[in-house]
């Protein structure tokens, strides 16, 4: 049995952090409808980790859809995202590509 990892897909996780740092909003809809969307792209693996470690927080969006939930980075999430994105950019390109392919 494969051990459960904290971050299911590192490439997606760093991409989500990067977009959230830029002010984009994570939108969570029902699991039946596809889960989460960030900047028009589906987020398959990162939401549970972002929520579990209090990196994102739900906010009220009166102009949004009634059944959707909207999330932004918390202060803790912003600090973490800054460190994680810097560490990601310091890795050689081949390592970043390998992590994207393997999760």
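^ structure tokens above, recovered residues below v
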């Amino acid at each position: 049995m494969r051990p459960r990892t904290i971050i299911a897909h590192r490439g997606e996780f760093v991409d989500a952090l990067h977009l959230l740092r830029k002010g984009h909003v994570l939108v969570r809809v029902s699991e039946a409808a596809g889960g989460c969307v960030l900047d028009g792209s589906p987020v398959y693996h990162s939401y549970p980790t972002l929520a579990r470690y209090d990196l994102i927080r739900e906010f009220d969006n009166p102009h949004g859809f009634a059944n959707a939930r909207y999330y932004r980075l918390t202060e803790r999430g912003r600090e973490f995202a800054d460190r994680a994105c810097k560490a990601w950019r310091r890795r050689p390109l081949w390592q970043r590509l390998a992590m994207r392919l393997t999760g």
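The mean pLDDT is 85.
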